[in-house]
Amino acid sequence: MQITDYELFAVPPRWLLLKLETDEGVVGWGEPIVPGRLETVRAAVVELIEGYLLGGDPRRVSYHWQTLYQSGYFRGGPILMSALAGIDQALWDIKGRHYGAPVHELLGGPVRDRLLVYQWVGGSDAEDIAESAEQDFARGYRAFKLNNPREFRPLETTAAIDRTVDRVAALRDAVGDDCLVGVDFHGRVSKPMAFELVRRLEPYNLAFVDQPVLPEHSEFLRRLNNQTTVPISTGERFYSRYDFKQMLADDAVSVIQPNVSHVGGISEMRKLVSMAEAFDVAVVPHCPLGPIAFAASLQVGFSSQGVVLQEQDLDIDDPESSQRLALLEDPETFEFENGYVERPTGPGLGIDVDEAYVREKAQSEVNWYNPVWHHEDGSLAEW
User: Fold this and answer.
1) Exposed/middle/buried for residue 383 (C-beta within 10 Å: 0-12, 13-18, 19+)
2) Is 382 among the domain residues?
3) Which of 64, 104, 262, 286 is catalytic?
């Protein structure tokens, strides 16, 4: 079997999809994307495939991964690792389809029957957040994450901190104590404010506080982790096991949140989960992406004991109205019940992409960039 061709499709709102083709007619799909840097990642995918992959046997997943990573003198980072991630996902998809088995079977078999998923909760104020959370709770979700705060100055007022805490309190009150609640600071909070804000959130029994500081300041995570009862988390802006290595060795985090489309794909994410297990650090994969990335992340989650919770942004509770799930031939592929997604049983990634619909959507212009926020004085704020 040989890899003979590939195609890339940019589809709304911000996804890049990869189709890998073989001489035996077996096709694999991947999702290589850095939201807001789509064209840059596209160029990297083209370089990697045309420079190293065409003509190769797609079943040699580990060899190809190592070649695509190690053959470049300059390695790592969001662009190259995300390009590699999408290629790796597609290779695993081909291999699973060739052998007629889900990828998780090829990785040693399932360790669970279902996996708890969490829902992102939106809202501009405490009242909106409570209303949104109550609706999601009624749909069956039992785990939630809130991006909080919004623009947060390096030195903030007590009132601003109070407003942030009030939003978390509203979410906790809305869903009760028998649900997991996480808060993502999104790197918006400075070091001195992070210590104070985490301290103020301790009474709400959070599952984690994610990205309490920017990745550039990860050396402060160890001290924060040692000073609070709240599990400290980070990881969506780290791109390989080497980026996580020192944090794990330093006992700087209790949870990590790698993304299967940024961290080098299924191959690298599986190794990273094993590393985290050795330090008793839980893994909550980050995945506010499309259905291919979600399917790839699930293959790791169902074959890895250390994955305890999975992000999704697909509205899997309501597949008929989900624009993202419309990319699949069967939008009901992911079975959702009582806050859990059931184990996929189809070959490869366990999904069938609706190629005709993808081609139709790829005719649209996809030009998404991160919002640019400002503080009241006109200086840039972290998004």
Assistant:
1) middle
2) no
3) 286
